[in-house]
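Note to self: keep these together.
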Amino acid sequence: MSRAFPKYNKRRVGLIGGAAAVALSGAVIAGSALAGESSEDSAANARTLAGPGTISCPDVAPRLPAVPASARAEVDRNLGDLDTQIAEANKRLADTVGQGGPNFVQNAILGPLKDKRVAAINRIATAIGRTADRPAGLDALAPCTLDTGGAAEAGGNAGGGGAGSEEATAPPADGAGQGAGAGAGETENTGAGTISCPDVAPRLPAVPASARAEVDRNLGDLDTQIAEANKRLADTVGQGGPNFVQNAILGPLKDKRVAAINRIATAIGRTADRPAGLDTLAACTLTK
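Structure:
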């Protein structure tokens, strides 16, 4: 009987030890799972809690000189366009929180917005300049800024973006999760390709001698814009999400072309019939 107890005790110790090991293993696994879940939740919160911020642009109206009565309607219409552009940019900012790389806001929102504002401000200056001195220096009011207003604090300063930095609203540049399930690089910059734009010169009417220099200068600007866009296309291969090329290259290029084409039409229209329909030549395409 005295020999039976040790066997019993050995079995008992073995069972207790095994149960303890199983419990410990379960605790470790559960702890690991919880730790992983907590880490993933924190990462998700860091991505989604960062607010979109607000786009701030200089007010153009107070910087204008006296507006001639003949230009008032056109000036008011373009001032309204400036407000609409800001509203649309803020909506896009809110709709794309967490998308793109660290330069997404600059490339896809602030850059195109600046180009649109340049075009609208140019139309305002041109309208005033028809019957009064054309205001100078208004282009300086075109760039806008992103005010994150403490969005980084709400997200726990995740990613070290710092309060008020544009990067605070964007994920890392590796683009993880961008465009998953999108068409195979429909406008993603997977290869350099070439940007093709309609040729404006053949579509122009006879150019008055007084407008020739300005028209030629802006035709040169159009060529420069295409060259710069093609360089940017080559320099950014592999960057951005599925709409990177459209948002960061083709869109801004179209806005720049609209402004240059408008200047060409305005130059001709000073001493001859202003050509119509040239804006249809502004859009460009990507040829792979």
